[in-house]
Amino acid sequence: MSTQPGQANSAISLSTALEPYVDVKRAASYLSVAVKTLNEWARLEKIPAYPWGDGSRKTWRFKLSELDEWMQGRINSVRRPPLSERTVRREKEAH
Fold first, then answer.
1. 54 versus 66: which is more confidently predicted?
2. Which residues contact 61 (CB under 8 A, 6 or more apart)?
3. CA dist 56 to 7, 32, 42, 46, 63, Å?
4. Which of 1, 38, 44, 83 could bridge across to 28 with cysteines, CB 3.0–4.6 Å?
5. Is the pLDDT of residue 73 over 80?
6. What is the residue extent of each domain of the chain?
7. Domain 12-94 in CATH 1.10.10
8. Nearest to residue 41, comparing CAs of 53, 52, 27?
9. What is the pLDDT of residue 53?
């Protein structure tokens, strides 16, 4: 291992740049959703995806790091409160 500071940073960026693409089955498993759902999200551009092939029926490829980033954005969104908060709110309204 080299002690030069520039080489460590280039090794990190090189490994990130060479992240492999995964197929829809692996990506769907990673997100715990159905393959059909993930294909639809990709087609509707709701999720980061890369078309594979030139035909009208595209095959999609994904990068797990981008899917993780996308999911983190959804977890932290203000669109809908977590289930636990919705349950607590309903219980308070009932009393």
1. 66
2. 21, 22, 23, 24, 49, 50, 51, 52
3. 44, 27, 14, 19, 22
4. 38
5. yes
6. 12-94
7. yes
8. 27
9. 84
